[in-house]
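Question: Now follow the chain.
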Amino acid sequence: MKKRSNAPLHRRKKSHTFMLLALLAPTLLFSSLVFAEDNTATEQSMSSEAQESTETTESTLESSTTMESSSTEESATTALSVESETTPSTLDSTTIVEADSVTPTPKAATVVIADPLLKQAILTTLGLPAGSELTQADMERLTSLSLSSAQIVSLSGLENALNLDSIFLNGTTGITDFSPLEQLSSLTYVTLQTKSLTSANFPDLSKSTGITNLSLGSTSIDNNVLPKIAQLTSLSRLYLDSNMGITTLEPLKALPNLRSLSAQFCGIIDFTVINDFPMLSDLAAFGQNTGRNDLPTTIGRSALSYDFDQQSLFIPFSLMPNRLTNFDNYVPPFSTSNSASNTYLDFNGTQLPANRLQITDLGITISGVSEDELKNLANFKYNARLNNPAGSYAQPAGFTFYAISSGTYLHQFNVVDDGKPVTVNYQDIAGNELKLSEERQGLVGQSFEIQAPDILGYELHQTIGNPTGTFSDQEQTVTFVYKEIAKEVKGTVSVNYVDTNNVPLRAAIDKTEIVGTPFTTEQLVFKGYTFKEVQGNTTGFYTEKKQSVTYIYTKDENKTDPTTSTDSSIPPSDTTTDTTDTTTSSSESNTQNSSGSVQKDAPKNSQPPRAGTKSNLSAKKRLPATGEQSNYAWFVLGTLLIGFVHYRYILKKVKQDK
């Protein structure tokens, strides 16, 4: 019995052994592969160390740190593998596949940096050997980067530096695409000082909500970049130095935390906007060079004051547009020095010598100008320094530093002859003047457009001459001809409703409309009256002459048969009074009914009075009203009853006395 039982037990042990070996075999093989990979990586690292033995100790330490980090990651991977091996075998393959699918991308993945010079700058910053591959983990260790090589042409791949805090790009580079910076949300300090930066390719840094310092000196940006900068609400320090295209600070007043602004050697004209900055207390705006991007101004020759006797020409400074203005509207004067280093003036591109210039705060007088020189003057350019030293202008309250000193002004003028005037007339069809004539002045070649004004009671009928064109050396005339607007004449139709005695049954209805408008009238219904006829047109058109329509009605007769009263107690005088009252009441009723368009219905048991003789009316009046005879009988019966009771009382009293 025991031998038989040992054989199956032995076989079960063998089966368990085979199953255990089958489970451990892949694990043992996988561990061997892992160690083989580790050894290969170690050999590569040692080889790299041998090649880079000339590097500094600091680089070596940085590399050692990197190796330790890699070894730690590998150990963690091995531990994860071992832990997976100890998982109970009851887990099916589906569960394992699902676990693998949610595993995050390893930070050891290689990051491609397209520009080799950018890659080398990143490797150098991280202390990695030249030629090393950059991983995502390496890029995330990058917190600051300085780029100054003129040969860098691309920033592609830099978007992986998710923890980059500051970037410094200086000098002339070939970079035209700055969009990789748009993904770096950790930026706080950004310096982009390169001529390849324009307002068009300036990156959208709205994701970098923590930027506090931004430097954009010596670039190719202009005013169009300012709204993009205004989105950086955490910005406290801004540098815009040496950008001639920046001529205004207006959009930047939306920055709630901006405290310091440097905009030296730009082209800013108006500093009154400084009053609208909520936190600004530091402004450096030395040396503004205004007018560099302004278009020439065209003026007439008459704007220049010429002295025929002295043969001198005076150019007033009041002609000069777009001058620098301080926060308090103070306009600094131009230099009064005629030296070439302070004042430049040319006629038709030829610089005038300093000895021909006499300058005051009001303008420049040029001597020795002949009539032919004036006639042939087509343009002149004025360029001068501002007489704006420190201390000569006010400083806003609350500012710790404020400077708008020095600076230059430049403007060019085109000189043309004054055109002959354009005379504008306003008259009606008959040629009568409706408004005083006007003269429009302009320069030869300057365009004009004259609009016809509105004149009360008139509308434009015709335009003689060309209301649009250009001024020339010939006089021009434009005449606007108006015609009177026809007045709207209104007509009236009066609708009357009367009886045969011409007594109104209601107030007349007056209808008023513009002459020529159709009208209609209506026949109304009056209780107790029958329509007889209408006088006038019931429909037609309103005319200037008042029209009348009269509807005539006949009063209905009373069809109730008169009853003669037998009551002789009513005297004739009473009958006459009642008849008069009834007639008056009827008249009042008719008068009241005439105040509405339709008479209200009378009670159903009422009948309209019927015309008859006075005796019939008196007889009708003597007829008792409803319930009158019954009331009289009760009165008689009551009197008899009282008399009977009184009689019985007296009779009883007499009997008692006996």
About this structure: The mean pLDDT is 79. The domain at 422-484 is CATH 3.10.20.320 (Ubiquitin-like (UB roll)).
